[in-house]
Design a protein that fits this description.
The chain is mainly beta. The chain is about 5% helix and about 50% strand. The chain contains one helix and ten strands; from the N terminus they run αββββββββββ. Strands 1, 2, 3, 4, 5, 6, 7, 8, 9 and 10 form a ten-stranded antiparallel β-sheet that branches. The longest helix has 8 residues. The protein is globular, with a radius of gyration of 14 Å.
Length: about 140
C-alpha cells in the first residue's frame, strides 16, 4: 500500500534553473529525504523501505509523470501541473484501495532556480513528506 501512496506523492517536477527549463524536455527527479508521519510523530524512512520509485521523469508538455523503479516505468497523469515564473506545482488525488479506502491527496512544489523538490501526501491516518532534486533530462 505504501508503494501506491509514495508513487502518487512523488509526481513532482523540477529544473536546474530558468535557463535550462524547457517545457518540451523531460525533467528527471530523485529523492533525498523521506518521512512517514502519523498522529504520534514522524520517522525517517528509506525510499526502498516503502517501495518508492528510484526516479521520476516529468513531461510538462504532456502533463504526465513516469515512475521508474527496478527498470520498470509506470506513467501517471496528475490532476494539475502548473508552471509559474519561479516554481512548478503539481496537485493530485490518488484513488483509495484496501488499506486506505479514502485515498490520498498530494502536492509538489519545485523551485526552478535550484531544482529542489518538496512534496507531501495526505490521508486520514498517515502522511508522507520529503525532499529531492531534479534536473533537465537531455
Amino acid at each position: 500500500m505504501r508503494k501506491v501512496i509514495i508513487m502518487m506523492v512523488l509526481c513532482g517536477i523540477a529544473s536546474t534553473g530558468h535557463a535550462e527549463f524547457n517545457k518540451k524536455k523531460p525533467v528527471l527527479c530523485s529523492l533525498g529525504d523521506l518521512k512517514e508521519c502519523s498522529a504520534t510523530g514522524c520517522d525517517p524512512v528509506a525510499a526502498d523501505e516503502i517501495n518508492a520509485p528510484d526516479f521520476l521523469r516529468i513531461h510538462v508538455s504532456k502533463k504526465t509523470v513516469e515512475s521508474i523503479a527496478g527498470g520498470r516505468t509506470q506513467s501517471r497523469k496528475p490532476e494539475s501541473i502548473e508552471v509559474t515564473d519561479s516554481h512548478v506545482h503539481i496537485v493530485g488525488i490518488a484513488a483509495g484501495n484496501g488499506q486506505y479506502p479514502e485515498g490520498f491527496s498530494y502536492a509538489v512544489n519545485v523551485s526552478l532556480d535550484s531544482g529542489r523538490l518538496a512534496f507531501a501526501g495526505v490521508s486520514e491516518d498517515v502522511t508522507f513528506a520529503g525532499f529531492g532534486a531534479c534536473m533537465v533530462d537531455d
